[in-house]
Amino acid sequence: MKLAAILMLQAVAVAVAQHCLSPSHCCGQAEVDGAGAQLSYGQPRALRPLSCNVSTTPGPGLRLPGPCHANPNGPLNARAIAPWDFWEDCDPARFPQRLLQARCRCRHCVSLRKPQRQDLGGNSMPVNVNLTVYYRQPCPGRTGAFYLEPRPYQVVVACVCLLAR
């Protein structure tokens, strides 16, 4: 039910923003920002999360420094045998501007036996999904006019433990 509601909101948002999605259908800055917020969050611009600064965090493929162990009392990402943390991927020219990306903490899987160590028989691997994001682009020959260009964007959502090859 929840997925159906999300898909319905996305369909409505695309219909609302449809006129700003090509260079032949340019919009003003405020209209593009509003359409981008609708496409990103399914809600008016005034209710969307605050914008962010461009992230200086290294990309999601890098491992995090720090403890490589599972925490039985932590959230799902910390209890996994392929634990991960999140970092904020920010781009002011993209809608949504803020995306959370997972980053695997460990190169190998965490052993279920005490004391916890990395198990060289398994590799901690990222799980990727492709989202459609929208980038603000200037309209050719029209100062102050923009359109939103849809592009696929890969987001790491979690890490899993796979048998080593």
UniProtKB/TrEMBL annotation:
Pfam families: IL17 (PF06083). InterPro entries: Cystine-knot_cytokine (IPR029034), IL-17_fam (IPR010345). Keywords: Secreted, Signal. The keyword Secreted applies. GO terms for cellular component: extracellular region. Its main location: secreted. Residues 1-17 form the signal peptide. SUPFAM superfamilies: Cystine-knot cytokines. It is found in: Secreted. One of its GO terms (molecular function) is cytokine activity. It comes from the Eukaryota. Belongs to the IL-17 family. This is Interleukin-25. The lineage of its organism: Eukaryota, Metazoa, Chordata, Craniata, Vertebrata.
